[in-house]
Amino acid sequence: MTIEYNDIIGLKVMVIDDSKTIRRTAETLLKKAGCEVLTATDGFEALAKIADSHPDVIFVDIMMPRLDGYQTCSLIKHNEEFKSTPVIMLSSKDGLFDRARGRIVGSDQYLTKPFTREELLGAIKNHAGHVN
Prior knowledge:
The chain has helices spanning 20-32, 43-53, 69-77, 96-104, 117-128; strands at 12-16, 36-40, 57-61, 87-91, 109-112. It is α/β, with parallel strands linked by helices.
């Protein structure tokens, strides 16, 4: 059974991860689905790009140098302009503590790496209705 993802075509999606492999994988899957993709290697680089490009959905890795995913998510959600932008946490850990901490900083969803195409696109589809 193929799930239809027509409602995510044209959405601007940001992927923030210090792993080149994860960024490339996500970018390939998202572009094939018709999304415009922006990438960043850490929270600092991401914040500047978010301010310039206003993505519709943001995926952020938890474990990153300089500014981790929790701090990045918190900064996004505390910004009046971006607080309604869906932020989906990415982590190789599937612990209850990590999920709870993600919720505390305002994340909208939590995906465990490695993620499947369906999980990635499904997460965007889940939140596409919340896009401004």
